[in-house]
Amino acid sequence: MATNAADPAFPRLDAARAAALAALIAPSLRREYPAGILHVLLSERDARPPRLLTPMFYGCFDWHSAVHSHWALVRLSRAHPAAPWVAGVRAALAESFTAERAAGELAYLVDRPGFELPYGLAWLLQLDAELGEAAAGDGEMAGWRAVLAPIVALAARRIGGWLEVIRHPIRGGEHSQSAFAMGLALDWARATDRPEGAALADVIGERARSFYLGDRDAPVAYEPSAHDFLSPVLAEADLMRRVLDAAELASWLAGFMPEAARWEPVVPVDRENGKLAHFDGLNLSRAWMMRGIAHALPPDHPRRAALLSAAAQHAAAGLEGVESRHYAGTHWLGSFAVYLLTFRGAGE
Question: The domain that contains 22 carries what CATH number?
């Protein structure tokens, strides 16, 4: 895994923090209620509790949070494999990743072609990427990955098909945003050994250029919207640093993001409100996006220092929110903290 040696101002995923995050995330895997599901009923038979609808990913309030909570626990276990909490976490993951649960999950997704597009399915690809990296030296995780394979293949096809159909990006700051999901999916597509990877990487690269390469004068002053947990401007730039080389990125960024742009951490006004608690996640995602953009620029680029400084400030602010005990945030912010602290997708 990447380290933060190049950015000493960034917080570290030390043993104590990893243990705290695992303790925060793991209980939600089996916490079925409260549940906020976007569920299309095809018949009266579909009026069932979440654990029977999606038997693998039913906790954590909603499906996508369940997916990235599983991802976070796999990643934490890989980062600190000898920690005393790992055995319990792996037992919980083994309970999820069974053939029977996977069959139920797949059946649900097959019948609902628009389900969790693009956000949740992109996180599913990240879960596969994490298991794929571990598989060579960890037979249990290799087995979990094999169980997930049909669902992952479906997710990759669906994201690729969706991108081929839409003709405009989705620029919001919540789950439907196209840039963030494209970045997650592109990282998976470039790293995976699955046959769907190369085709999806090509589609994402082409659509990223089509959607965003001509953008100029990003409306930084319009951010944030009240419910954002993703920055439309930074997420776009974070995707394009994956697609463009350093020189292209520097040229594009000069026209896209005003040099006067200043990013300040945001403060949630109500951490008990599910939407208003999004600002803690916005601080975390801004932090990793700014860091990724900075490291993709040429080493002597004048914006690097400012981006890294702002990223460190946002990281500190976002991690304060992870300490909240309100379920509105705790069911998902732990995963964002793991993504930040382990520099997943950092492009290093």
Answer: 1.50.10
CB 231 within 8 A of CB 285: yes
* Per-residue CA distances from 267 to 64, 180, 252 (Å): 24, 22, 30
* Among the listed residues 120, 77, 125, the one whose alpha carbon sits nearest the alpha carbon of residue 112: 120
Q: 149-186 pLDDT, tens per residue?
A: 999 999 999 999 999 999 999 999 999 999 999 999 99
Residue 10 belongs to some domain of the structure? no
Taking the C-alpha atoms of residue 348 and residue 339, their distance in angstroms, rounded to an integer, is 14
Neighbours of 293 (CB within 10 A): 24
262 within a domain of the structure (yes/no) = yes
Q: What's the one-letter identity of residue 238?
A: D
Q: Report angle CA 70, 339, 160 to the nearest 5 degrees.
A: 75
DSSP of 49-85: -HHHHSSSS--SSSHHHHHHHHHHHHHHHHHSTTSTT
Per residue in 268-318, pLDDT tens? 999 999 999 999 999 999 999 999 999 999 999 999 999 999 999 999 999
Nearest alpha carbon to residue 25 among 87, 92, 95: 92
Q: What's the rounded Cα separation, in Å, for the pair 172 and 181?
A: 12
Residue 8: inside a domain, yes or no? no
**pLDDT tens, residue by residue, 54-94:** 999 999 999 999 999 999 999 999 999 999 999 999 999 99
DSSP conformational letter for 303: T
| Residues written for the chain | 348
Q: Where are the beta strands (DSSP E) in 141-241?
A: none
Hey, what amino acid is at 244?
Answer: L
- Report if residue 216 sits inside a domain: yes
Contact, 308 vs 315, CB < 8 A?
no
Count structural domains, the chain: 1
Q: Which of 90, 66, 85 is nearest to 19 (CA)?
A: 85
For helices 178-191 and 232-243, give the axis angle rounded to 10 degrees: 30
